[in-house]
Amino acid sequence: MEQIDKTEQYILVAVATGDEELAWASLTELEDLLKTAGAEACVHVVQNLDHPDRSTYIGKGKALEIKEMLEIYEADGIVCDDELSPSQLRNLSDLIEAKVIDRTILILDIFAGHARTREGKTQVEIAQLRYRYSRLRGMGEALSRLGAGIGTRGPGETKLETDRRVIQKRLKLLSDEIETLKKARDTTRRKRTVSAVPTAALVGYTNAGKSTLLNRLTGSDILAEDKLFATLDPTTRTAVLPGGQEILFTDTVGFINKLPHNLIDAFRSTLEEAKYADIIVHVVDSSDEQAEMHCKVVYDTIRDLGITGKPVITVWNKIDLAPEGALFRDFEADASVHISAKTGAGIEDFYSELERLLRESRVYIDKLIPYSGSAVIAEIRKYGQLISEEYEADGVRIKAHIPAALASKRGLV
Ligand SMILES: Nc1nc2c(ncn2[C@@H]2O[C@H](COP(=O)(O)OP(=O)(O)OP(=O)(O)O)[C@@H](O)[C@H]2O)c(=O)[nH]1
Ligand SMILES: [Mg+2]
Fold this sequence. Notes:
Layout: E1 9-16, H1 20-36, E2 40-48, H2 60-73, E3 77-80, H3 86-96, E4 99-102, H4 103-114, H5 118-133, H6 140-145, H7 164-194, E5 199-204, H8 210-218, E6 235-240, E7 246-251, H9 261-266, H10 268-271, E8 279-285, H11 291-304, E9 312-317, E10 335-338, H12 347-360, E11 362-370, H13 374-383, E12 385-391, E13 395-403, H14 404-409
Parallel strand pairs: 1-2, 1-3, 3-4, 5-7, 5-8, 8-9, 9-10
Antiparallel strand pairs: 6-7, 11-13, 12-13
Helix pairs in contact: 1-4, 4-5, 5-7
């Protein structure tokens, strides 16, 4: 008989420890992730528990129910909406005698499929190998159940390594490579800082419309599509604002609820692009029912990355799709605008708020500060971005970008 290749089918499973609504919404997102990875969901299951079962994630009774459901739906396995511990993964896979995927494997799989640059691919492979390495011992059976689908693909469709010693060697090699790439990235960034052109970083939840906005602002043509994590590698493009100010916009990888820690660590150098920006442009999909939760995730993630103390302009995007009369508020932002990156509506407001914030934010100084002014020097080091410091006979020559408020307070402009 002819073998027909069918799309992998999964049952999606979540444990609700509080708000059940949130657990269902999170499964909807998990289904989007699964589709992006090229598989399909046949049914969603939520179990209410005080906390996930320590040894099997869901309760044993529930697991046996799911085992029956797997037969009825002829599904390939299940996807759990949290990162499972090595023993949860093993025990659950043994109980249901089928493939168990967790949220982390799924996200890593998508990243592997979307990485384009050498840095992106290396970062993903590091995250994947670290995840595998911590789960190899005693996991032979559960791993072999993964077969050849989700969870086994490295960047560029390479097969992921399964031997502990080989993994360790490979991790060392990849980490060295990342160090080299990081140096190159730092150099490029330093060149940018010296040129004194301000930078705005577009950050936001995945699929919010960051790349679409970058394309509109800079007339570029980078990939923007209705997929989660379409962008992995930061892209920087220049633009000139209506008032004549030149500016650099950087598009970055999107965030998601429960972003795997391995991934944050591995992607730190690209995620941190926003750390060196003068302004954060926070893009939100205002047509998404979960917009409020998305905002929270974005603020939590940027705080985790140490990106604080920068002016934030929140862009409520996709206003063409948002429900009429909906109220969008972000109390953490310094400015808020409503736009559609797709139709161009509201872009003028965005420009004028951005120009206002830029004026209020940072200025470039090149000053000789006498040695008696050490307190001022300390302030510049603390609050500004230092480009260079040279010790001369009469004092320290400092080149830096500093907050406009500090510059005027200390008479540096
Ligand atoms: N209707 C409408 N669709 C939009 C708008 N902005 C973006 N989109 C669509 O939303 C989808 C996601 O847009 P992207 O620009 O790829 O989103 P992103 O934030 O870069 O997403 P990732 O790179 O995956 O994190 C695409 O299908 C866009 O066409 C908008 O203002 N209105
Ligand atoms: Mg994008």
